[in-house]
Write a structure and sequence with these properties.
Blueprint lengths: L1 H6 L2 E2 H8 L3 H9 L6 E2 L5 E3 L1 H17 L3 H18 L14 H13 L4 H8 L3 H8 L7 H10 L4 H5 L16 E3 L6 E7 L5 E8 L14 E8 L1 E6 L5 E4 L3 E5 L4 E5 L5 E8 L1 H4 L8 H4 L23 E10 L2 E6 L11 H20 L9 E6 L6 E7 L3 E2 L3 H13 L8 E6 L2 E7 L7 E5 L3 E9 L8 E6 L3 E6 L12 H22 L8 E8 L2 E9 L2 E3 L4 H13 L8 E5 L5 E12 L2 E22 L13
Parallel strand pairs: 14-15, 16-18, 23-24
Antiparallel strand pairs: 1-3, 2-3, 4-5, 5-6, 6-12, 7-10, 7-12, 8-9, 8-11, 13-14, 13-29, 15-16, 16-17, 18-19, 19-20, 20-29, 21-22, 21-29, 22-23, 24-25, 25-26, 27-28, 28-29
Helix pairs in contact: 7-8
């Protein structure tokens, strides 16, 4: 033991001073088998020069590259193997050499999970396929703008790709003790002070001479840039270039297109702060006062000049954006919902149903909603730009056009689109493309809906009226298309109650008939009444005996368009305008004809617009006798 003491003369206190690693962390590393100090019978630990070098290397791997304990063990084992093969002079990796294989491997796993080839990712991000391949193998790194494009493609943030810090709430961060991202693009070194932990991501950027973003890019959140030294060139939205010197700063919404460059003859150093949208979602409501123009001039109104509310202990809050599409509501949940199982949105819906169905009733049922309230739960998607689960007061839906139109408007209002006019959306029924600003109005939202087709051209409804028939068609949901005009019932306000009663009877009769005959259609979701009069088309979709769609219903409209196309009354490129009972129209167009399981089908596009109606915080107090709501029909 005396020989061991002489070989390892340093106390744990001395090692903490030399390496900057605290004693509790050293003991943890010892328990994990990363280090092996000598221990006297008294329990006193001592360290030698080799131990100190190893501790410094472990700390470097942890801070600079974000390695896990398992990753550190593998890296140390590889270094030992190399040293044994090449001699003791085989040096440990230089701290200044960027190691990019982790980030590249993360991108490769995301690409494979999404089922995309190198060429497909290259086409979507503007990065050469060969460069992307080198990046995935850890031998090259893309520019910041291209890395941002890669992150957005997989619904990731840059912090998600690069990894974050683990300060565990530590308030003080000493100079040089941040986590180093050795090469965030050519000539760029980033020291992460705190990333992916709190509301703000705070970093110190060092740009080598000539380093630049290599193009404009945009992402979510807001950012503040403060120039510590050097000269920083910044351009926003394609505008004039501004050069910022030491002490100058820039603050802007990150959804604005921006590019930058080091304009100094030497290095430029910046304090760069970003906010994260998911963490913004947990802000107090007062944090949105400026955007909503709340708390205006002081008056006598209740709560005026203050947007704050003291809640009892144990209260839960849920923030939502409410919209309506041609009169039918959509409530979009803003709170991030993690932990849903499944790769596809359809699988995540089943996970939501099993784990969080109480949120559906809480959000949509009385007293916070009503029978007709419709909800949308945003989820991540590995296959599309965004994902969405559709929920109603009584069921889950595969597809909803009015809800998608509302969601597009909400994403745009919340700055989530980053200036894009189109995006893809994965829903349980599949992937649809969504476009903003078509057909002459910036408010319009157009949806390239799922393939729509007629399963049964004529199904007798003799119990309703002898000779009366319905067409059974799919447009994202199953509908019975019936002619209200043939029954002598106009689609207007005064007749909605009669149509709801009749629609419920038709739905029950058809579902009984479908069950008896068997076949691919097990049941319909709704009854669609249509009326063609005076050159106008109207439709009313009855969902339940006491519930109807206030909008013209885009999925029902797709099913009706499939019927018209089958009858030769609607051709590709021909527009089809349908009003709801309130006289508000949707615009339909057959993009192309196709087939589904050998049957004629169409790919319809539905266009409508949505209006914001509320930005709300729903509250559930701990002693609320009806915390998950109720529904009186």
């Amino acid at each position: 033991m005396e020989q061991d003491e002489r070989r390892k003369p340093y106390s744990i206190g001395h090692v903490t001073k030399v390496t900057g690693v605290n004693a509790s962390t050293l003991r943890s590393w010892e328990q994990q088998g990363l280090i092996d100090p000598s221990k006297a019978e008294s329990g006193r630990r001592t360290f030698g020069d080799d131990d100190i070098r190893k501790i410094q290397e472990i700390d470097r791997l942890r801070r600079m590259y974000g390695y896990s304990l398992a990753g550190i063990k593998r890296a140390l084992a590889e270094q030992n193997t190399t040293a044994a093969a090449e001699g003791a002079d085989a040096a440990l990796p230089n701290a200044d050499e960027p190691r990019m294989e982790q980030i590249g491997a993360r991108v490769r796993s995301l690409r494979l999970a999404a089922g995309l080839s190198l060429r497909q990712v290259a086409e979507k991000t503007g990065l050469a396929a060969s460069h992307l391949s080198m990046f995935e193998r850890g031998v090259a790194f893309p520019s910041p703008s291209r890395l941002n494009a890669i992150a957005q493609l997989f619904n990731q943030t840059l912090a998600d790709l690069l990894g974050g810090t683990s300060t565990s709430g530590q308030a003080i961060i000493r100079k040089g003790r941040g986590r180093i991202v050795g090469s965030f693009g050519p000539g760029v070194t980033v020291e992460q002070l705190t990333v992916s932990e709190e509301l703000m991501d705070c970093e110190v950027w060092t740009l080598a001479q000539g380093a630049e973003s290599e193009g404009f890019y945009a992402h979510e959140g807001q950012e503040l840039i403060y120039v510590l030294e050097g000269a920083f060139e910044l351009a926003l939205d394609g505008g004039d270039v501004e050069v910022l010197g030491a002490g100058d700063s820039a603050y802007f919404n990150s959804t604005r297109q921006h590019r930058w460059r080091n304009a100094a003859a030497g290095p430029t150093t910046l304090l760069w702060i970003n906010t994260d949208v998911k963490r913004l979602a947990s802000l107090e409501g007062a944090g949105f006062a400026r955007a909503l123009k709340l708390g205006g001039p002081v008056g006598s109104g209740l709560g005026e000049a203050a947007f704050a509310l003291e809640l009892p202990e144990g209260s839960r809050t849920y923030r939502v954006v409410d919209l309506h599409t041609a009169g039918h509501p959509t409530r979009v949940m803003l709170e991030p919902l993690d932990g849903l199982d499944g790769e596809s949105v359809a699988e995540k819906r089943e996970s939501f149903r099993a784990k969080h169905d109480h949120l559906r009733t809480l959000l949509l049922h009385e007293p916070r909603g009503h029978a007709a309230t419709f909800g949308l739960i945003p989820v991540t998607s590995a296959r599309a730009d965004f994902g969405a689960i559709f929920v109603s007061s009584y069921k889950y839906l595969d597809m909803c056009a009015h809800g998608t139109i509302g969601y597009a408007r909400a994403l745009d209002a919340l700055g989530r689109l980053g200036g894009r006019s189109s995006f893809s959306l994965e829903v349980p029924a599949g992937i649809v493309d969504v476009h903003l600003g078509r057909h002459g109005s910036a408010r319009n939202v157009s949806i390239d809906n799922v393939a729509s087709y007629v399963a049964i051209a004529e199904l007798p409804l003799d119990e309703i009226r002898p000779g009366y028939k319905a067409a059974i068609a799919y447009g994202g949901g199953w509908y019975a298309n019936v002619d209200a005009g043939a029954l002598g019932i106009p689609i207007q306000d005064d007749d909605v109650a009669e149509l709801m009663e009749l629609g419920a009877r038709i739905k029950a009769q058809i579902n009984a008939a479908l069950k008896a005959r068997g076949g691919p259609v097990a049941e319909i979701d709704s009854t669609l009444f249509y009326e063609e009069r005076d050159g106008r088309s109207r439709q009313l979709v009855v969902l339940e005996r006491n519930k109807y769609d206030r909008s013209p219903c885009g999925t029902g409209m797709s099913a009706r368009m499939a019927e018209l196309a089958l009858k030769g009354r609607l051709k590709p490129g021909q527009l089809h305008v349908v009003e709801n009972v309130l006289g508000v129209p949707f615009l339909g167009e057959v993009l192309k004809e196709t087939t589904v399981a050998g049957q004629p089908a169409i790919l319809p596009q539905i266009t409508g617009s949505a209006s914001l109606s509320a930005f709300s915080t729903l509250i559930v107090e701990a002693d609320d006798p009806l915390p998950n709501g109720f529904l009186c029909r």
